[in-house]
Write a structure and sequence with these properties.
Number of strands: 0
Radius of gyration: 21 Å
CATH superfamily of the largest domain: lambda repressor-like DNA-binding domains
Oligomer: single chain
Number of helices: 7
CATH class of the largest domain: Mainly Alpha
Strand content: under 5%
Length: 122
């Protein structure tokens, strides 16, 4: 096992290539242990150099709707009438505190995700 800290893009590519080779190693083998450690090192490098922004509240709602196979009409109880749901999901109206409370329960999203600021479309 020859593991080192990833400091450069070349190190990162080398680590990815090695990880691909040993990814399916049988559990309990030295290669499996190496894959576990290498995965952690790669993950750390990616978090620092390729951060993924969390979605804004409207994107988070749309993603969860897709996961739960919901349509806009399914959120009428949480957001309001059919036109209100459309306005919110098309970024023409902001979420209210009451909407956030109801959506948090219905969609199992954290309030922190839904209270983030986002831009309206004019």
């Amino acid at each position: 096992m020859n593991i080192k800290v990833i400091k450069t893009e070349a190190d990162y590519q080398q680590a990815l290539n090695r990880f691909e080779v040993i990814f399916d190693a049988p559990i309990g083998t030295p290669e499996s242990d190496e894959a576990d450690v290498l995965g952690l090192i790669i993950d750390d490098y990616e978090k620092k150099h390729y951060p993924i922004e969390s979605p804004d509240p409207i994107e988070a709602i749309k993603i969860r709707m897709e996961e739960l196979q919901l349509k806009q009409i399914d959120l009428i109880n949480e957001i309001g009438g059919k036109s209100r749901v459309s306005e919110v999901l098309n970024r023409k109206r902001k979420l209210t505190v009451e909407m956030i409370r109801k959506l948090t329960a219905r969609l199992n999203l954290s309030p922190e995700t839904l209270i983030r600021d986002y831009q309206l479309v004019r």
